[in-house]
Amino acid sequence: MTRSRQRRPRRPRGGATRVAPALAALFLLAVALGGCGSGARQVRLMYAGSLIVPFERLATAFEEQNPGVDVVTESHGSIQVLRHVTELNDRVDVVVSADEQLIPPLMYERDDPATGRPWASWYCSFATNRVVLAVSPRSPLADELTPHTWYRRLAAGDVRFGLADPRFDAAGYRALMVLQLAEREYDEPLLLEDTLVGRFTTPITVEHEKGVDVIEVPEILETSAGSNIVLRGASIQLVALLESGDLDCAFEYESVARQHGLKYVRLPASVDLGHERLRDRYASVRVKLDFRRFASVRPEFTGDVIRYALTIPANAPDAELARRFVAFLLGPEGRRILAADHQPLLRPPEPDDPAAVPEEVRRACAGAG
């Protein structure tokens, strides 16, 4: 789990001020007690780990435009983000998933026990991405991982590569989809099995159902002794291991690789989940989780083009401030920040149900075409 939770410090304005020691002591005491009496409003964001870099900039920019507002940020794998709201009773103003298809089963189809109503009734898709194979600059195999050889090197078993846990992170189940789609692209019928067999104590398997390849992930997913795979709860946790050379490569989003200056192998369009025209091809793969935490929903995810989506939970602590933040994110300044950090954007953003979307959000979507 990646956690970046903080009350963001306010930036000082103007020149330095000399403070008497007694007053300084009182100020430090107030800070230690959590800023009691400051009257600052908070907007709490919980989002997919691949958005850490641009969302920290968004948070700072929003605070600067809204004096008296603190932005509190926290990141996890996308599935874990939604579970924090619906199962762990974490009250959040805005949630952002790296996969739009997670929101309906985890928020629309489940009710808040406190109110008897769904956790959310709308979402807005605003960004996209594609999967790449990020390569460590310190790896002795870096030059051997190319667009023409990467899949063979992974299957050979001597490359130490990272994988996000598909039970918690959309990047994890998307990496499995990429491997399965690569079987057809490269005419390697057992590529996924050759890459993963023997690497987990309970195997990941593939079944074929009416033209769809169904990848089945066991409830307990642990790497076996001597495995060349490193499993982490969120894909962003693999970046430090790439930078240190503890991994040779890892499946990451292209935006993350670019934000961290990592070399990466660009995958074929038919494999990378990044092209609208290939949605039917991506849909030939499905991931099924045998995970009891999903007992109340159907834990199956069909291959699709990558789409990030956000919503405001029905129990948001400050719904008015949440709407203002979402409108800022979807507006000109927010989109400029996202684009500067290599996050591909949908133009315009697409609400799943325009009638259910708050007016401020609907206006921001209409103005972002």
Name the shape in a single word.
Answer: globular
Average pLDDT, rounded to a whole number, is 88
Number of strands: 18
CATH uppermost class of the largest domain: Alpha Beta
Percent range of helical residues: 25-40%
Structural class: alpha/beta
Beta fraction = 15-25%
Biggest β-sheet: strands ordered side by side in the sheet: 1-3-2-4-17-7-18
Sheet of most strands: 7 strands, mixed
CATH architecture descriptor text of the largest domain: 3-Layer(aba) Sandwich
Note the gap between the termini: 35 Å
CATH topology type of the largest domain: D-Maltodextrin-Binding Protein, domain 2
Radius of gyration: 22 Å
Q: Looking at this structure, what is the CATH superfamily of the largest domain?
A: Periplasmic binding protein-like II
Low-confidence stretches: 1-37
Number of helices: 13
Count of the separate structural domains: 2
In short:
This protein has 369 residues and is of the alpha/beta class.
